[in-house]
Design goal:
Chain lengths: ~200, ~500
Amino acid sequence: MDLAVLQAVRLKGGLADASTVIWLAGGDEAAVRRSLGSLVAAGQVQERRGRYRLMPGGRDMLRAALAAERAGLDVTALDLVWEEFSAHDHTLKVILRDWQLRDGEPNDHSDEAYDAVVITRVEALHGDVSRLATRAAAIIPRLSRYPGRLEMALVRLRGGDRRFLTHPMVDSYHTVFHELHEELYGATGRDRASEEATTG
Amino acid sequence: MTTITTAVRPLVPDLDGDRALLGGKAWGIQRMLALGVPVPPAFVVTTEACARHRAGGGRLPADVRAALPAAIAHLEEVTGRTFGRGPAPLLVSVRSGAAVSMPGMMDTVLNLGMTPRAQVALAASTGNARFAADTARRFTRQFEAVVGVAPPTEPAAQLEAAVSAVFASWDSRRALAYRRERGLDDNAGTAVTVQAMVFGNLDDASGTGVLFTRDPLTGDPEPFGEWLPRGQGEDVVAGTHDPLRLAELARAQPAVHAELMALAATLERECRDVQDIEFTVESGRLWLLQTRAAKRSPVAAVRLAVALAEEGLIGEREALDRVSPAQVAAVLRPHIEPHARAAARVLASGRPACPGVVSGVVVCDTEVAQDRADAGEAVVLARPTTDPEDVPAMSAVAAILTELGGATSHAAVVSRELGVPCVVGCGTGTLMGLAGTEVTVDAAAGEVLEGVLPVVAPAGAGDEPDLARLLAWARAEPGADPAASLPDLLTARDRTR
């Protein structure tokens, strides 16, 4: 449970309140609260004005917990998921760029037809992404929230709330996708900065 | 003299052939010759030959190979030198030149024709063995870098290989990327200009430089340039040496400086635009190597268009032609005061992700950045890359910089969504050392400048005198909407032109 809690706190970068951590970590609410309480007591997580933030000790603990988790995983299967997922990362980023910019200028979202085409491209990608999220959750059960979160972002986007494609402060498609990507980096023992440095 | 086929043409004042065929470089040389400007003799291998070179899988067409010796003989005749051997050896430069200028994107080989015999002869004729050795060393290094093999000893073989390599550099990755970014035609091809070398590194009365007939950053009317004593062309352009101001040339060689200024004025008047001129002084004798319309900042584009029209060099209509809606928009956006900008040191540069101009102190630690930003400080967050846990800090800071990643990276996507100015991909090791430094980020230009610089924010076209002139001219044109904004009027003109 500690691993899921630490990861939730980390991914939200100090913005998560208790209910967000409970929701992200999944599982039994009482267990999440107990874990969060003991992590705060041990100084691994800091609580400030109701929001939780990872401290250096918590970061070390998270790293160790990920390594321990990895020891019990089918790493080959997970590597494959990471690889396929990373291939979709670029595709999604290009779609997001086209959502944000038209001919280099900000998209003012006045052209519904243009936006609809972009959303269609996300939907076309979503089938693969969703299957990969499900595969990831089958290997690592604590990731079981992701398929539903991706689905939900798409539902809200289709419902007309444009924030749910790219906005970083809501559970948008990009937010969920990127957090899952980050989870896969951590689970496979990769470091994103050094991967990006080698792949350009 | 042997007849020269159309693919290879000596540059003479009355040469026929358009810019698309000859390329900008040869076109400029030929125009200078027509104006009586001192230009080292040259010939051009046309863009048409480049097309056949590309179609033929990178092999130099037979007619080009056959025509090169006669073209070289022409240079030998004019200079009184001999290609690749003494007593006075002829060395040539081999340069790209597309119809649309692509500065620095394609390859150049200087000092071609350098052989062991030529080196000995050059040392003897100049009495300067160090200079001859230096020239040989530069040549070998550059030839290997461009052609990929050591230079052959036969000068004619060197020339064929270099012309072929310069043609091939049209399809280099950086050239392709440059054209893609600007929407230029991938099939236009480059011409190759082969020109007798003059030596800026011959003695203390020699050197090389560039001259802008007016300041291309600020649009100030004074000539602006750099002078590198005992240097050769690529030293200034590549920025590998610290050049001096042109005033140094005026002090050291007043007659040369005066001649240069007179020629610059002639060229600007004849070309009816601000020129970017490359020149070399060889033992006190001035040679102009090329001239072209100067690349300019948006602020300079607006100022220069109005200034040239007011001086009667161009008409009001042409002044409007020379300013794009994007340039006007850039001047209307808050931007760094041009003189402060020209004087400021560029600490890092990368790809623009989200535009905006903002100053602040560089902080590399995400949590510290967030705390200081929350406390009301203007913080520029600099990270190798960003990831989800950086998002809260990214929403709190004044600007975001990353070392890695392109226009679709996490930082780019998030910054655009948050509307926070952002420059991505500044390069590994470029940012972390800036921690604690006060900087001004010009995100649209992709630049990080030292210090807190003054920012100009015109309220509208009417608020800025040069834009007001352009607006008045644009509104006076037949069919113009008298209530439309300047960018809209320019866009409408573009559409009907």
